[in-house]
Write a structure and sequence with these properties.
Largest sheet: 15 strands, antiparallel
Number of helices: 5
Radius of gyration: 35 Å
Strand content: 25-35%
Helix content: 25-40%
Length: 404
């Protein structure tokens, strides 16, 4: 069995340029060239290339339930070698040939902290088999696809007293890993291109009605967080960019078009890998169904492991139906919450419009009052001048009469 266990990544979106608007480039932000923008990721890529090492190891282990020689492929690593567990055993329910597993069958790995099943086709030689499915029962993780070539779909179910979530990761899972991550309960979609020391992350917000961004691109160092030039685009097609050092915005900049194209190229690369994974899953399900047809019969029983546990794979349709009911129930709750939030935002917009109208009315009233005050002042001035002129005329006339 291959070692394909990865933990889920929580989808989130740090708002790096809060408050930025259409005035982004009108305030003469400094421009950076492509060499500057690529500086951080080139540093991380050089670090990776200079420190590459293989921790994975391959072992061929005898199937515990077979009396004849029947070795199975086990991929593990030096640090966490599960095969060293005294309670470790691996079983095979298929055929054997030339001392190795042969044909279509299922591996069942058991140990102190190991409970995994895998459907594979073996060649009867010392060759890595074709893996189509792995299920990590303790971690609630299901993997389907072309596992041998690392294109597959992973479903992670988080189910505890604090949280219920269903997360899908699908793409290419060999360095550099390129995959999409999507929670069924989150409108955001995350795209990753991942190396051991850093990764590129693009979060797509286009389906999130409560976020004004289309996407956010960041370079994330595994140990210390976002470090490099990040870019966001809003739904008004405004581009915001800046230098982020360990999650802190240092300065806002204008990045070159070539850097935007670089981001688009990474995004397309991940999308292509994800599509290959989905295609591989469809093909894998044909093999999985063929296997189920063979063992999901009443007369098929095993003694090397609990038979009910062995046949649990035959009840997955019912398990998936119950899971879908829980998913639907939570989606209904989320939709209700969205409706309430939508109504609240609408009320806020109405209230803001009322306040704006009131301010505009007050402004117009003040302008009218100012205009009237000016007019009154002018009228008073004119009246005063008129009276003064009339008085001057009377004075002049009286003076003339007195002197003639």
């Amino acid at each position: 069995m291959k070692n394909n266990l990865l933990t889920g990544i929580i989808i989130g979106g740090l708002i790096l340029f809060n408050g930025c608007s259409n005035r982004t480039y009108s305030i003469q932000l400094p421009k950076v060239d492509i060499n500057e923008t690529m500086k951080y990721e080139n540093k991380y890529l050089n670090e990776y290339n200079n420190s590459r090492k293989r921790d994975n190891i391959i072992k061929w282990i005898q199937a515990a339930n077979k009396k004849v020689s029947c070795k199975l492929f086990v991929g593990t690593d030096f640090v966490n070698d599960r095969t060293k567990d005294p309670d470790y055993k691996i079983y095979w329910d298929g055929k054997c040939k030339n001392g190795y597993a042969y044909g279509l069958g299922r591996e069942l790995e058991r140990g102190t902290l190991t409970n995994m099943n895998a459907i594979a086709i073996y060649s009867g030689k010392k060759e890595e088999p074709q893996y189509f499915r792995q299920k990590y029962n303790l971690q609630n993780i299901l993997i389907e696809g072309d596992l041998t070539n690392n294109y597959y779909v992973k479903r992670i179910i988080v189910d505890n007293t604090q949280k219920f979530d269903v997360i899908y990761q699908y793409g290419y899972f060999k360095i550099p890993e390129m995959f999409i991550e999507k929670s069924l309960f989150n409108d955001n979609v995350a795209f990753f291109k991942r190396y051991p020391n850093f990764h590129y992350r693009i979060i797509d917000f286009s389906n999130n009605e409560f976020d004004n961004r289309i996407f956010n691109f960041s370079i994330i160092e595994v140990k210390n967080g976002i470090n490099g030039y990040s870019v966001e685009m809003t739904k008004n097609n405004v581009i915001n960019a800046g230098l982020i050092k360990y999650n802190k915005l240092i300065k806002r900049v204008v990045v070159p078009k070539s850097y935007l194209q670089h981001i688009q190229d990474i995004w397309n690369e991940i999308k292509n890998a994800a599509q290959k994974a989905l295609n591989s899953q469809q093909k894998a399900q044909l093999v999985i169904n063929r296997y189920k047809t063979r063992i999901c019969k009443k007369n098929v029983k095993v003694s090397f492991i609990d038979n009910d546990e062995y046949k649990k794979i035959c009840q997955e349709d019912e398990e998936n139906r119950k899971l879908q009911q829980r998913i639907n129930k939570k989606l209904e709750q989320i939709n209700r919450e969205k409706y309430v939030k939508r109504q609240q935002l609408q009320q806020q917009r109405i209230q803001q419009m009322k306040i704006q109208m009131m301010l505009e009315q007050q402004k117009r009233a003040q302008e009218e009052a100012n205009r009237r005050a000016i007019m009154n002042g002018l009228n008073q001035l004119n009246n005063t001048l008129y009276r003064q002129q009339q008085q001057q005329l009377m004075n002049n006339m009286n003076f003339w009469l007195m002197t003639h």
